[in-house]
Design a protein that fits this description.
heterodimer; A: mainly alpha; 3 helices; elongated; B: mainly alpha; 4 helices
Chain lengths: 80, 144
């Protein structure tokens, strides 16, 4: 792709006419809008929040299975 | 809190993808702006890594399943010892310390590059001082 004869075919953005704007104001508006959108989506759709699977929950749910697996690991008969 | 965390991430990823598409079709890397584009792309990939480690620290069945799958992939490229997806503490620190820190630095650099190099003029735009000379892609309507 060849663009123009100059090293860069893209003009300097500072060469164009400009108009004043308030960056802090625009940032604040964007931040507030996104914060409100987040709260709205969270309250409407919530989230799955699936609880962790832990050794404690496993041993409580099926103590015999947990004990059998733990003993098998200790005597190195599992995974062989 | 969990829902706010989830939906702020959903929005972050959504707006990042919109920004990526917009800048891609604008060819915003023109005119010595390659580094701006590259830092943005690295930010995007770092965000994916941050989302991944966040997913792993949930420790629910899906999370542990994906950690088990990812472990094989990462071991096959030889980084499993340095980035151990089965290590809950390591993934938690990647998620809340290392990756956010890197992401913050990259974002600051990206924004500063935009300020230093300026925003890219539209495709086919010519320097107002050169008006009347041949342009690479003249626009059909002349702006006053």
């Amino acid at each position: 792709m060849s663009r123009g004869h100059r090293k860069s075919g893209v003009p300097d953005p500072a060469a164009f006419p400009t108009r004043p704007y308030d960056l802090v104001k625009e940032f604040t508006i964007a931040l507030v809008a996104v914060a409100l959108l987040t709260v709205a989506l969270a309250s409407v759709f919530s989230s799955p929040d699936v609880k962790p699977v832990t050794l404690a929950s496993w041993s409580r749910a099926d103590g015999a299975d947990f004990t059998a697996t733990a003993v098998a690991e200790l005597v190195v008969t599992s995974g062989e | 809190v969990n829902s706010l965390h989830l939906w702020s991430v959903e929005l972050l990823m959504f707006f990042m993808v919109i920004h990526l598409w917009g800048k891609f079709f604008m060819a915003a890397w023109r005119g010595r702006r390659a580094l701006t584009w590259v830092t943005g792309a690295v930010c995007f990939f770092t965000s994916i890594g941050t989302a991944f480690t966040g997913y792993l620290v949930q420790q629910n069945f899906d999370s542990q399943w994906i950690a088990g799958q990812a472990k094989d992939g990462l071991n096959s490229v030889g980084i499993g010892a340095f980035f151990n997806v089965l290590d809950f503490g390591q993934m938690l620190m990647w998620h809340i310390v290392l990756l956010p820190f890197v992401l913050g630095l990259l974002t600051a650099w990206h924004v500063l590059l935009v300020r230093w190099r300026g925003i890219v003029p539209p495709i086919g735009a010519t320097d107002p001082a050169d008006h009347g000379r041949a342009s690479p892609a003249p626009s059909p309507e002349e702006t006053p």
